[in-house]
Amino acid sequence: MAEDHKIRTSVKIYGYTYKIVGAETSAHMESVASIVDKKMREIHAVAPSLDSSKLAVLTAVNTVHDNLKLKERVEQLENELRKLKG
């Protein structure tokens, strides 16, 4: 997609404002930012001594972990579906 067609959205995550550029809608990007902000605040509540850089990395690690678990579950369900159809 050409740069001119990308959507620019300003979002707030953990007290900082970021300009996000992407092909998704502003609502989608705001939703993503909201989830990241919520996760960072949840982790901060458990580990308040972490600085924002470490908090961001830990949030990313947790998010990727969750993503991988979901992908594994989708693959498992797809395999079960194939078996039922076959």
UniProtKB/TrEMBL annotation:
Q: Does the keyword Cytoplasm apply?
A: yes
Q: Name one GO biological process term.
A: septin ring assembly
Q: Which GO terms describe its cellular component?
A: cell division site; cell septum; cytosol
**Entries under Gene3D superfamilies matching the protein:** 6.10.250.790
Which keywords appear in this protein's UniProt record, sorted alphabetically? Cell cycle, Cell division, Cytoplasm, Septation
Q: Which domain of life is it from?
A: Bacteria
Query: What's the main place this protein lives?
Result: cytoplasm
Question: Where does it live in the cell?
Answer: Cytoplasm
The record's listing under Pfam families reads: ZapA
- Summarize the subunit comment: Homodimer. Interacts with FtsZ.
Per the entry, what this protein does is: Activator of cell division through the inhibition of FtsZ GTPase activity, therefore promoting FtsZ assembly into bundles of protofilaments necessary for the formation of the division Z ring. It is recruited early at mid-cell but it is not essential for cell division.
- What's the name of the protein? Cell division protein ZapA
Q: Which organism is it from?
A: Planococcus glaciei
